Amino acid sequence: MVFGQVVIGPPGSGKTTYCNGMSQFLELIGRKVAVINLDPANDSLPYECAVNIADLVKLSDVMAEHSLGPNGGLVYCMDYLEKNIDWLEARLKPLLKDHYLLFDFPGQVELFFLYSNAKNIIMKLIKKLNLRLAAVHLVDAHLCSDPAKYVSALLLSLSTMIHMELPHINVLSKIDLIQNYGKLAFNLDFYTDVEDLSYLQNSLDQDPRLAKFRKLTKELCGVIEDYSLVSFTTLDIQDKESVGKLVKLIDKTNGYIFASIEASAVEFSKIAVGPVDWDYHRVGEVQEKYIKFDEDCDDNE
Description:
Elements: E1 2-8, H1 15-28, E2 33-37, E3 51-52, H2 59-66, H3 70-83, H4 85-92, E4 100-104, H5 117-129, E5 131-140, H6 147-164, E6 168-173, H7 188-193, H8 200-205, H9 214-227, E7 232-234, H10 240-254, H11 265-272, H12 288-300
Parallel strand pairs: 1-4, 1-5, 2-3, 2-4, 5-6, 6-7
């Protein structure tokens, strides 16, 4: 089994920075990491990628050859990659023995809730290469400072979760910069737990531009609450404790924590019956650096 992350999110949410920081952190705790760049518009990579879609197709070439804009060009590139999935599979197979995979996808949000190409690519890889992947959906934390933008982020997150059909984690990225946008109307827990959006209505009513959309906003919030799927965790990619807590959550989501556990009903029942520290149920030797880091995180909680 091979484990990894599908990193997605709107432009500017910090996907490439995330892949760079996450790959460094995972290597420090003893994992061999391969970053796969599937963003044909990203020609300035801060990390060394094991596979680069630019070797197959480039957005600039597609735009010039087919007279397409950037959005249409990205849709074309994803369609081209899906039709040439064998190219990607051939480059991933040498990594399957001992690597943890990070897939860096484009930031065009339509690819993940409107078009099916990106989803088809992921599902084909999961089926053919026996991958265990979790979607990590990044949303810029500054959207919490604007109620209307926050509701939009919730809708985007919900639509993406339903469309992608993957184990899914929504992340408020750049949380260390949120104070630059002024004081939040509510505590941060309100924005991460997404439990009662009716409180947002008062904030929205204070904006005269949104008065005529009051009923629409109320109905949209109702849809989000009815599904009751969306919640967020937070991330400061430069803070090791923040990254480490996210890694633990992702490991639970994609099943990495079970990689060394024998598939017995006894072992799995121990984990299922209550809140336990999953490290105690790992079989085999665990990296000393990871244990030390895990203990430090728990001491600071």
